[in-house]
Fold this sequence. Notes:
Layout: H1 3-36, H2 40-48, H3 63-69, H4 73-80, H5 97-103, H6 107-115, H7 127-134, H8 137-145, H9 160-166, H10 170-178, H11 193-199, H12 203-209
Helix pairs in contact: 1-2, 2-4, 3-4, 3-5, 5-6, 5-7, 6-8, 7-8, 7-9, 8-10, 9-10, 9-11, 11-12
Amino acid sequence: MPTRFRALGVVLAATLCACSALAADDDSVSFFRAVNTDNADGVSRALAKGFDPNALDEHGKPALILALQMESPKVARVLMDAKGIQIDIRNQAGETPLMMAALKAEVDSATALVAHGAAVRKDGWSPLHYAATGGSAAIVRLLLSKGAPIEARSPNGSTPLMMAARYGNEEAVDALLAAGADRTAKNDLGMDASAFAASAGRDRLAARLKPGAVAK
Length: 216
């Protein structure tokens, strides 16, 4: 083959590769735009064409976690039902979809994730920590009913009750106490739930949580 034809072939191949890459980039942009705007039809069309439901956006966020973070519940349900979805996929911070739903206090999404088999147990920061932080007593009770450990410990030894106290989520506090959470437990810094509440200026809640205090 003459040199000029070989060179032309190389150019054409490179052009085709570049076009394919651009098309893939366009597909990704369209998909994640649909995720961000709760465009369930757009996401469904992309999945029908073979788009990976576990794809990561440009910041490394999995589509399902992003949908929950952006409060796109219809897209989240489409992704949960997608073939091949990793229901416990993690982001770069080690968070799972269930943790994000719990943090956002999205009861319906959390319930659906659990129904799809999402793990309620996790070493370190757990879904129950996030539910306590998000403040949904309903999600707290849901996770406990599915076997989430009530005294789960974060990397620094903090419990869900401590997180609920820190953020002043009294309904979550009440749900945890009703289920037997230990108000005397301390983390690695020697802080109990009462100290967490006090550190955030929540003096009334801190008084309620002091060991030996009478439950409200």
